[in-house]
């Protein structure tokens, strides 16, 4: 579940400075300016504890897991499975409900293809999608939580529907009964928008999905790094998140599946390590989660991801969430004071319904030009459509500039960004 952060729990400036000492890259200078890294929504920086965990594995225990009977293989397997248990505990579930993937994109595609495989397997008829069935997404979704479902609809004959946003980007929750009907077989949506920073009304959407018996899939990429998240309490059937957004390495992510649901899925990738018996005529498969982990696994990355989870736990997700709310408040207050700046998705939302992220459109300045101007000052932001072309199109935009913080973001980082946006208006001559 998510909780509303309290100011009492917030990280102090001294806490943030101590945390920054664990991230060597934050000492980087860009064009003679100290780096203000405000692109954590794309990928977070990594603390020494994570870097050391991956390096230590290669130095001391490097071996293939679930294979071989020698000491290194046994130690590697134990650490690999301990990592699974650690990450599972971090999000409130059990180890056998966690499937390692290369990232959230692979997790969503794995799920979509496994569901389409159910179409051809009599034993998986309960998961079969057919013409007349509906898949429901939202107009806020990252392409990774849209295109796999478009493709699944094409393969199965199902219809794709979406919950729209209003002119400010706010999800039209008032329409969910109209959009999520008895024909809905699957409802999938983001916990936190990667463009708007808004925390979506998970309980309302899931309650409606449960009324009609739909499978619920949650994109938790932008929530797991920033909020206390208990997937069991949220009552989702499946969820995905990525390691590289939660202080972990690239190349590893998680697909969570509620035990009975994961057990019911047919495999997607096949080959070694996911079988019990193979003959020339056929094969029998291991139970979940190993049934979905064919081939050589991302062992060092999983171990480093577990180190990231322990690092976040040690600081406290309630404190990290409170810091994120503070970052978001400082961003919005500062941006509201700058003429010509449109902050996307803020109308009608309180600060405690957001994470520390804001996407903006500055009248008269293209997002890419603004990003270049800020980069010259050592301020790293994301520019473009952020893999959400439908959302940007709905809001009449082709691109925005996004500033996204993390537990290592300082007030000075935010203030430099705000000053940079203000100065850019003068530099590009759009202050009138």
From TrEMBL:
Domain Aminotransferase class V: 37-417
Keyword annotations from UniProtKB, A to Z: Pyridoxal phosphate, Transferase
Record GO biological process: cysteine metabolic process
Pfam families: Aminotran_5
Keyword Transferase: yes
Source taxon at top rank: Bacteria
Cofactor list: pyridoxal 5'-phosphate
Catalytic activity: (sulfur carrier)-H + L-cysteine = (sulfur carrier)-SH + L-alanine
Function: Catalyzes the removal of elemental sulfur and selenium atoms from L-cysteine, L-cystine, L-selenocysteine, and L-selenocystine to produce L-alanine.
UniProt-recorded name of the protein: Cysteine desulfurase
Organism: Salinibacterium xinjiangense
């Amino acid at each position: 579940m998510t909780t509303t952060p309290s100011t009492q729990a917030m990280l102090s400036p001294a806490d943030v400075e101590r945390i920054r000492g664990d991230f060597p890259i934050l000492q980087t200078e860009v064009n003679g300016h100290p780096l203000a890294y405000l692109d954590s929504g794309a990928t977070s920086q990594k603390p020494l504890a994570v870097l050391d965990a991956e390096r230590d594995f290669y130095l001391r225990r490097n071996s293939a897991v679930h294979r071989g009977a020698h000491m290194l293989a046994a130690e590697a397997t134990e650490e690999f499975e301990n990592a699974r248990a650690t990450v599972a505990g971090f999000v409130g579930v059990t180890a056998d409900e966690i499937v390692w993937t290369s990232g959230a994109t692979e997790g969503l595609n794995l799920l979509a293809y496994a569901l389409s495989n159910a179409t051809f397997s009599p034993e998986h008829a309960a998961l079969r999608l057919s013409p007349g069935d509906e898949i429901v997404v939202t107009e806020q979704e990252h392409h990774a939580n849209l295109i796999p479902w478009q493709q699944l609809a094409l393969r199965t004959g199902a219809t794709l529907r979406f919950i729209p946003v209003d002119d400010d980007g706010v999800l039209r929750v008032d329409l969910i009964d109209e959009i999520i009907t008895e024909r809905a077989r699957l409802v999938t949506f983001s916990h936190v928008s990667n463009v708007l920073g808004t925390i979506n009304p998970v309980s309302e959407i899931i309650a409606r999905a449960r009324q009609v018996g739909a499978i619920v899939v949650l994109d938790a990429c932008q929530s797991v790094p920033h909020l206390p998240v208990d997937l069991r309490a949220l009552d989702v059937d499946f969820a995905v998140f990525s390691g590289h957004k939660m202080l972990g390495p690239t190349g590893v992510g998680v697909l969570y599946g509620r035990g009975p649901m994961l057990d019911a899925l047919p495999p997607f990738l096949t080959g070694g390590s996911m079988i019990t018996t193979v003959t020339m005529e056929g094969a029998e498969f291991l139970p979940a989660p190993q049934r979905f982990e064919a081939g050589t696994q991302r062992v060092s990355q999983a171990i480093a991801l577990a180190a990231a989870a322990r690092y976040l736990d040690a600081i406290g997700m309630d404190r990290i969430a409170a810091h994120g709310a503070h970052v978001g408040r400082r961003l919005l207050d500062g941006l509201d004071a700058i003429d010509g700046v449109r902050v996307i998705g803020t109308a009608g939302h309180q600060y405690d319904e957001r994470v520390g992220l804001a996407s903006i459109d500055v009248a008269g300045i293209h997002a890419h030009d603004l990003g270049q101007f800020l980069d010259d000052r050592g301020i790293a932001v994301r520019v473009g459509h952020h893999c959400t072309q439908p959302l940007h199109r709905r809001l009449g935009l082709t691109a925005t500039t996004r500033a996204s913080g993390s537990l290592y973001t300082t007030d000075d980082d935010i203030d430099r960004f705000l000053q940079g946006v203000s100065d850019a208006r003068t530099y590009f001559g759009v202050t009138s």
